[in-house]
Amino acid sequence: MSDGAVLVTGGAGYIGSHAVLALLDAGHRVVVVDNLSTGFPFLVDPRATLVQGEIEDEALVRGAMRDHGVIAVMHFAGSIIVPESVTDPLKYYRNNTVASRSLIGSAVASGVRHFIFSSTAATYGMPEIVPVSEDSPKLPINPYGTSKLMTELMLRDVAAAHDFNYCALRYFNVAGADPQGRTGQSTAGATHLIKIAVEAAIGKRDHVTVFGTDYDTADGTGVRDYIHVSDLAAAHVDALGLLIARPGESHTLNCGYGRGYSVNEVLDAVDRVTNLKIERRYAERRLGDAGELVADNRRILETLPWRPKRDDLDGIVKDALAWERKLAEIRGE
Ligand code: UDP
Description:
With 333 residues, the chain is an alpha/beta fold. It folds into 2 domains: 5-175 and 227-255, Rossmann fold (3-Layer(aba) Sandwich), CATH 3.40.50; 193-224 and 258-330, Alpha-Beta Complex (UDP-galactose 4-epimerase, domain 1). 40% of the residues lie in helices and 18% in strands. It has 10 helices and 14 strands. The protein has helices spanning 14-25, 58-68, 82-87, 89-110, 143-161, 193-201, 229-245, 263-274, 298-303, 313-330, and strands at residues 5-9, 29-34, 49-52, 70-75, 114-120, 165-171, 173-175, 208-211, 223-224, 226-228, 251-255, 261-262, 280-283, 292-293. Strands 3-2-1-4-5-6-11 form a 7-stranded parallel sheet, with helices on both faces. The protein has a 3-stranded mixed sheet with strand order 12-9-14. Strands 7-10 form a two-stranded parallel ribbon. Strand 1, helix 1 and strand 2 form a beta-alpha-beta unit. Helix 6 packs across helix 10 (313-330). The longest helix is centred in the first third of the chain and has 22 residues, at 89-110. The termini are far apart. It binds uridine-5'-diphosphate (UDP). Uridine-5'-diphosphate binds next to helix 6 and strand 8.
């Protein structure tokens, strides 16, 4: 609980809307800034204030910081499609790097001293050692990863120069939905495996394509560390508590369970949960995909009180599926 408010950028999007719920449920005041380019107002809990606008709009953001007594920023807004970042890199450097620079500038100018940043395992590129620790080389293999890494570097330098601390959370594969059904992944044109699989489960697709069967993994398909979005949101609330309690410290933390599942294992879970046998079509590797990405999560466990509560692949799939059904109902499909 804090007296000041938390400004959440991208709070009308998938992960941001879960963080808004976690903050509100923990007793924080929340103001969301979102341009609604991929987010939806119906995902924002009505207890939060929603300001529609660009995070680069310094007058708007500084006004919101002043009017709401903002003490911290959680920055989720950004572009997140890896293949698109390859074909349109400048979009990623604008939306992720340049926009973040403006937002950090607004925070510093407004005396907002705490900043939590949505970073990504894509900052590691193709790690040689898995599970991957925070100190592993940061060698992103696409502009998405680079655009996020550049923001991490800006935060590091700003924290050294100003009365300001930050926590960069490097997400592994985020999936699932609010177990109470209040929000979930709703953006069209899904590319993420569990979202695609539950769309297939409710009949929105007739198959799932498995990209790559020749990786150096147990069954040849790609291995990822899937973290429930509500667990991830809870980590943000704990990170905020730490930044407030220890103003001289900044942190960079992997967010994952430290356990990998292959594409086939994920699809087995979807079949199990739905009692279906969703068709799998085996195809070539997808460009830029690493074979195995699993978090070494020791640092987050040492640093935050946070503990995983929903480390259960079937449970993640169940929550994703329940939201997919609800979304179809909301949209009258
Ligand atoms: N994947 C797949 N079929 C799909 C989408 C993803 O086989 O339709 C694979 C992908 O190659 C990777 C894993 O599932 O091995 C997770 O991919 P996703 O796009 O969900 O997340 P990423 O790890 O790329 O961030």
